[in-house]
Specification:
Helix 1 (about 15-30) runs parallel beside helix 2 (about 50-55), helix 1 packs parallel to helix 12 (about 240-250) and helix 7 (about 140-150) crosses helix 9. About 45% of the residues lie in helices and about 15% in strands. The chain starts with 5 loop residues before the first strand and ends with a helix. It contains 12 helices and 8 strands. It has a single domain (about 5-250), classed as Alpha-Beta Barrel (TIM Barrel), CATH 3.20.20.
Length: about 250
């Protein structure tokens, strides 16, 4: 099975409306017609509509960085899956380490969001990854296994094919310390094995597993060449059109 690479930019809480517009226009011009790799950008909630309009008609899809699991009602500050669909989102990042470790989201909460996203037709980019102390104490596999198991609890085989898993070691996010291709491959292979046990080998083979953590044009090719790395979730380098383009080109 050859999986199509999927490269997504997580703009996090960055960029004014005009800056986001400028970046979206530049990406549309540079990589808007790339078909060999699936592409997405994930701006802040308030810029989804603006960016969505600017990438319309290109190969770049729109994703959000978070959502809530309820349909509507008294949930101040939250955004529903249906609202994300309505504004043109195809993807939603769930369980990002900053939401786990800064905001305090649990595996169980993330699981509710994953299930809701799926039921509303969104495709989750479901993030997992260990902290530095967990890696240093040899707990990486156990931590990631639990995150995948709980996060995907109740996700049917039919829906699982629409999930992208992003393995993002927390110590590599925004730090400039990329995992070595071997370190990343080892965890990706474990996740795929876990998926094969949970579903079956054919489905596990079809599910994309992105790597995230200080991916840049200079290290992208080596990471993307690993057999179980099927793309990248890119933070810092996705804020510069040339850097994100360089990463996409490494995948072509
Ligand atoms: C991320 O936020 O998902 C990420 C991987 O960030 P960075 O590329 O900046 O490490």
């Amino acid at each position: 099975m050859s999986r199509k690479l999927f490269i997504a930019g997580n703009w996090k809480m960055n960029l004014s409306r005009s800056e986001a517009g400028e970046l979206a226009r530049a990406l549309a011009a540079k990589i808007g017609h790339v078909e060999a790799v699936d592409l997405a950008v994930c701006p802040t909630m308030v810029q989804l509509a603006t960016v969505g309009e600017l990438i319309q008609g290109t190969q770049i899809a729109l994703g959000a960085q978070n959502m809530f699991y309820e349909d509507n009602g008294a949930f101040t500050g939250e955004t529903s899956a249906a609202m994300l669909r309505d504004v043109g989102c195809r993807y939603v990042i769930l369980g990002h380490s900053e939401r786990r470790h800064v905001i305090g989201e649990t595996d169980e909460l993330i699981n509710r969001k994953v299930l809701k996203a799926m039921s509303e037709g969104l495709e989750p980019i479901f993030c997992v990854g260990e902290l530095l102390e967990q890696r240093e104490s040899g707990e990486t596999m156990e931590v990631v296994r639990r995150q995948v198991e709980v996060g995907l609890e109740g996700v049917s085989a039919g829906d699982a094919a629409r999930v992208t898993i992003a393995y993002e070691p927390v110590w590599a996010i925004g730090t400039g310390h990329t995992a070595t291709p071997q370190q990343a491959q080892e965890v990706h292979a474990m996740i795929r094995e876990l998926l094969a046990g949970r579903y079956d080998a054919e489905l596990a083979d079809a599910i994309r597993i992105q790597y995230g953590g200080s991916v840049k044009p200079s290290n992208a090719a080596e990471l993307l060449n690993q057999p179980d790395i099927d793309g990248a979730l890119v933070g810092g380098a996705s804020l510069k059109a040339d850097d994100f383009t360089g990463i996409v080109q490494a995948g072509l």
